[in-house]
Amino acid sequence: MSTPLSGPGSAQQAPGRGPVRTGSPRTSRTARNHAPITVAGLAAKVILLGLVAGIAIWAAFPLVEAEMWVWLAVLVLTTAALFYLYLGRRHIPAKYLVPGTLFLIAFQVVPVLYTASTAFTNFGDGHRGSKDDAIVAIQSSSVKQVPGSAQYPMSVATKGDPATGALVFLITDPQTNTVSVGDARGLRPLDPGAATVAPGGKVTAADGYTVLNVGQASARSKDITDLVVPTAGGALRSSGLSRVYEGKAVRAYDAGCDCVKDSDSGRTWTADGEVGAFVATDGERLAQGWKVNVGLSNFTRVLTDERISGPFLGTLIWNFAFAIGSTGGTFILGMLIALALHSPRMRGTNLYRMLLILPYAMPSFAMLLVWRDMFNTDFGLINNLFGLSVDWFGQDWSARAAVILVQLWLGYPYMFLVATGALQAIPRELTEATSVDGASPWQSFKAVTLPLLLVALSPLLISSFAFNFNNFNAIYLTTEGAPFPADNPSNGATDLLITYTYRLAFGGQAAQFGFAAAISLFIFAIVAVVSAVSFRRTRQQEDVYA
Amino acid sequence: MRIRTAGVVALFALALAASGCGDSDEPAAKESPKAAGGKLVIWADDKRTAALKPFAEKFGQENGVTVEVQAVPNEDLQNNFVTVSSQGGGPDVVIGAHDWIGNLVQNGAIDPVQLPDEQKAAFNETAIKAVTFNGQLYGVPYAQENLALIRNTELAPEAPKTIEDLVATGKQLKAQKKVTETLCLQVGQKGDAYHIYPLYSSAGGYLFGTTANGDYDPKDLGVGKPESIAAFKKIAALGEKGEGVLKRSIADTNSTATFTGKKCAFLVSGPWATADVKKAGIKYDVSAVPGFAGGKAAAPFVGVQSFYVAAKGKNKALAQEFVVNYVAKPELAVALYQADPRPPALTAALDQVKGSDPDLAKFIEAGKNGQVLPAIPAMAAIWDPFGKAEAAVIGGADPTSTVTAAGKTIAGSIK
C-alpha cells in the first residue's frame, strides 16, 4: 500500500490496460540471459535445490515402505527433471513455466480429478475404509464380556527380554489368590509360592518371569491387545494393562460365504459389493460398511430425487440473481464512488478513501455475524433504529434483500479500489478530447470511460461473479438459507446451490462425500460455462476497444 | 535473479506438496521400545485439555510413559478424529459427547471398553446408559448435562409448576414493564431441537421409539406421527402468532444475554450458562423445565461427556489402562468439573463438589425426568429438519403440514 491510491501525480501514469492493482510493478529490470552469478543467488539455489533433494528423499521412504512404486517413479523423475532444468543454463522459458505448471497440477488439476473420482464412490460416514477395515471393526466391536464372568487382575510378563520376548499374562484369581499363566495355548496354573501377589491381586514378581512395568508394557501394546488366552467359555483378553476379562467375539466373518455371522442370534449378513455393506436377508445393514464404486448413482440421484431436483431450478435462478446482484451492485456503487473521488474538484479524497476501505479491512466472518444480529426482529439494530418490526430473515424477499445488502456493504470497497485504479489508468486526454468535441459528461462517461473501465475490470467482475456464485459464508453465516418453506426443510429461500448441497450432503444422517462431490461437479460445470461465455465476450469487447 | 530464486522457492514448496501427497502411509512410530516406554496421545477440546494436562502428566510420570494432550476445537474434533482414524492414524484416546458414538462406531473409529461391574456401579446410571450402544459400553463417562429452567429470583421468586404458570408470571412481569420477553428459550431462524425437546416431550411427542432392550429404534420415527403434530400444535400456541412466548428472534447468540440483561425472567439453558449468569450478578435459581398442565413431565435430553479408546490407536493397551483405571478416579472428574462446570458422572466426584456448588444437585434434579440423547446415527438426520419445522411452526406455519413434511424428510435420509 505504499503507492498512493491517487493524488495529483497519478494522472500522469502511463496509460495501460494491465492489472490495475496498485503496488506491484509487473516488469523486472534486467534481462536474465546473461545475468551475473551472484553469491546470494547461488547460495539460495544450492540451499533450495538441496532442500528439494532432501524432501524428495524423505518422501521416498514412506513410498518404498508402502511399495507404491509408481509414485516413487514419479517422485524420482520429477526431482531429476527439476535438477536438470535448474542446474543448466538452457531452457529459460521452461524455468518460468514449470513451477507454475506443477503448482497448477498439484493444486488445481489433482483436486478436481480427486473430486471427480470421489463422485463415483459412496465415500462418506460408514463407508470410509476398505472391506477389511470394516470386518475388523465389526469383529472387534462385537467382543462382549461373557455374561456372569468376572474380570481378573493381570500382569504382563515374559520369560525373555521385556522388549522382544514372548508375552504371557499372569492372572490372579482373587477368590483363591492362585496365579495362572496365560498365553495363546491356554491357561495353566503357576506353582503356589512362585509369585508375589500385591494387595488387589496384581502379580509383582514371579519366578522365571520378568514382570513388565507400564512403560515396558505400553511399548508392546499391540502384542498385548493381540494376545488372546483361550478358555472354555470364550477367551481372556486384556482390558488395559492390569486386568483381563473373559470375552467372546459374537460376530465373525466367514470368508467361505463372504458373510458375517452372529453366534448369539444366529443371524447372517452377506457382503453386498454394490452398496459396500453387509446386508441381512430382511434388508438390515451392519453399520460398518466400506467404500465401493457406485458408478453414476450419485449423479442420477441428483437428477431423479424429487427432493433434490424439485427445488433445484428455483435455487439456481436465485443463485444467479444473488451472484449478479452482489457483483453488479458492488460494482456500480464502487464505481460511482470512485468516479466521485476521481473528480479533480473533490477535496479530502484521501480521508474518504480511508473511510471507504474500512469495511474491506474488517474480517468478513465477523462482519457477517454482526449483520446477522443487526437484522434480528426484536433485538436487531436495524429494526430498533428505524422503528420497524420487519421479520427480515422470516420472509423470502426481505431475507434476499438483506443478504444482498450485506454483500453490497462487504463488497463495494473492493470494487471502489479496483475502479479507482482503473480510472487512473485512463488518460485524461481522452475525456478532455470528448469535452472539446462538445460531449456532455454523461456522454463522455458512456462512450469513453465506462468501456475502458469494463475492459480493464471484466476479468475481475467475472471472478467476483464466480466467487459470489459459491459464496458459502455470505449465506451460511447470516440466514443459513432461511426462511424455509414449511413443507420443505431442505431448501430455503436464500439458499445458494453450495449451501443447499452442503445441507444435502452433510446435514442428513452423515457426511456423504461421494454425493457432495457429484453435486460440486454440477456446480463446477455451471460456473465454468458462465465464465467461459463471459471471457469470450470480454475478448470481443477488447478487440473493439483495444 | 529474483525470479529465478522465486522459481526455486516454488520448486521447494512443490516438493513439499508432492511429499505431502505421497506419504499417506506413514510408517508406524518405530521408536526403540526401550526408549521411554510407550506414548499416549489424547485429543480433547481446549478447555478440557488444560484440566487434563496435569493428570495426564502425572499418569505419564507414574508409569514411565509419555502422554501428550492435544487440543482440537470442539466443533472439529469428531470429524477430524474420524478422518485421521480412517487413514489409520490419530490419537489413542478421545474425549467427546456421547451422541458421537453412533457415528464413531459406524466408522470403526472406537472400540468398546470393558468396565467391571463394581466400577460401573460407581457411575450415575444414566451416564452409563448413555455410553452404552448396541449393548456395548463404548466410553467411560465423566460428566453429564441437561437443560433446566434458570429463573431470576428477584423477578420470579417461585419456580413455575407448569408452562402455563410460567407464561402467566412472565406476562404479568411484561405488563409491569419489568421484562420485555416472557421466556428466553433459544429458537432462531433454524429452530433448535435440543432446546425445544422438553416442551415437545411434555406435549406427548417423541423422536424414536425404543426396542425391547431399551435402545432407540431408528425404524420407529415419532416425527410426523399424530402425537408429534399434537405436540407442535401446543408449541404453535406459544409461538409468534399465539402467545408470543416462543420467538425466532431469540437465538443461541442472544438468549443468555437477554436473560442476564434482565429482559426476561426465565431462561431455558444448561450448566454452561450459569457462569454468565453469575458474572452478571443476577440472583437466580435452577429448577426443572416445566411441562404443560395435564401433559407429561418435560424431559430434557441428557448428554454425557466421555472418554473413548480409539480403534486405530497405536497404543491401545495403554489407552485402555488410562481410560478404564485412571479416568474413573474422582480427582480427575473434579478437575474437569472445575475447568467446565458440568455435573460429574462419577457419584463420588459429584458428592465432593456438590457442597460448594448447589446448582449441580439442582441440575441433576432437573434432569431426573430426562431422556438420554439418542446416539444412533439416525439422530443426525433429526436435528436440522426438526429444528426448521419448529421455527416454521413458531413463526405461524400450519403444524400439521409442516411436521408431516419434516417427518418425510427425516425418514428419507435415514438409511
Automatic annotation (TrEMBL), chain A:
Molecular function terms from GO: ABC-type maltose transporter activity
Pfam families per record: BPD_transp_1, TM_PBP2_N
UniProt cross-references to InterPro entries, sorted A to Z: MalF_N, MalF_P2_sf, MetI-like, MetI-like_sf, TM_PBP2_N
One BP annotation, GO: maltodextrin transmembrane transport
Membrane-related topology note: Multi-pass membrane protein
Record-annotated membrane-spanning stretches: 39-62, 68-87, 96-114, 316-339, 351-371, 401-426, 447-467, 513-535
Residue stretches making up the ABC transmembrane type-1 domain: 316-534
GO cellular component, one term: maltose transport complex
PANTHER family linked: MALTOSE/MALTODEXTRIN TRANSPORT SYSTEM PERMEASE PROTEIN MALF (PTHR47314), MALTOSE_MALTODEXTRIN TRANSPORT SYSTEM PERMEASE PROTEIN MALF (PTHR47314:SF1)
Protein purpose: Part of the ABC transporter complex MalEFGK involved in maltose/maltodextrin import. Probably responsible for the translocation of the substrate across the membrane.
Name of protein: Maltose/maltodextrin transport system permease protein
Species annotation: Micromonospora orduensis
TrEMBL record, chain B:
Cell wall biogenesis/degradation listed as a keyword: no
Keywords, in A-Z order: Signal, Sugar transport, Transport
Pfam families: SBP_bac_8
GO cellular component, one term: ATP-binding cassette (ABC) transporter complex, substrate-binding subunit-containing
Biological processes per GO annotation: maltodextrin transmembrane transport; maltose transport
InterPro entries: Maltose/Cyclodextrin-bd, SBP
Family: Belongs to the bacterial solute-binding protein 1 family.
PANTHER family the UniProt entry points to: MALTOSE-BINDING PERIPLASMIC PROTEIN (PTHR30061), MALTOSE_MALTODEXTRIN-BINDING PERIPLASMIC PROTEIN (PTHR30061:SF50)
Protein name: Maltose ABC transporter substrate-binding protein
Organism annotation: Micromonospora orduensis
